[in-house]
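Bit of a strange request maybe. I'm writing a small parser for structure token strings and I need a real example to test against, not something I typed by hand. Could someone generate the tokens for this chain?
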Amino acid sequence: MSLARAVDRADREPTLPSSVVRRIRQVEIKARILADEALLGTYRSVFRGSGLEFEEVREYEPGDDIRSIDWNVTARMGTPYIKKFREDRELNIFLAVDSSASSWFGSVAQSKRELGAEVAALLTLTALKNNDRVGLLRFAKGMQEWLPSRRGREHLLRVIRELLFAEPRRDRTELSAAARFLTNVTKKRSIVFLISDFIDVDIDESVRMLGRKHDVIALALTDPRELELPDVGVVALEDAETGATAFLDTSKRRLRAEYAERAMQRRIERRRALGRMKIDTLELFTDRPFVPPLMAFFNARTKRA
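Reply from user aminoacidic:
Good idea to test on real output. This should exercise your parser:
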């Protein structure tokens, strides 16, 4: 099945413009290469499933662990029987991706929105290759789009399209509503990736409850211009989420220093707040490759586990 037809079938819409299909294919091909070359083995080692499921009982054989004896069946049958379990390997992976207006920003070749889409595509493809199910929640002020967890290439293409080409809205980030929804969307413990720039985000009790029920990983998207200002004279800065504009004279060293200090303080406070909730955080940058830090992060979690 061609890429265009797969996307059409997934979205139940007419044929997509060739430029859209081409961009989706670029992201898919990049994700496939990275998943095969780098991430799949690491993913399998760090995410192992939610536990064991009962499969059957059978007669005890020499060498079996006596702790697995089913005493009720043994009493009825008059001979030892044990419980046999198998690993519940299948995982639910949920991607909660911030699509608020601040994600449009990018001072380099890609925006935070594009970086988030590429990261989400790689995680989706890696999970699907491992036979896991993936769901997508795109959120800003309230839920923007919910794609229930599924498998298959068509689902991957739908995720990529939704993240790259969904209609932008000038909305603030509202993480609490997304966290409440994901807390209740499934009874089974799942993996949740929070993909956001975390600008003006309230990390409140709803996020803590999400972290108690699921394994939550925060991927913070950052553009270099959000960390420091260059000395380029007077510039107009627009708040993408409110539309407010301010003029700053970047030639002033003190102003640049204060800007960098506030940015650093926001990052420290975010990490501390999520750390208190036992939520791991990884910062990814629009001007750097994201696979090496992602692999290092997963490897560190594997060693810690």
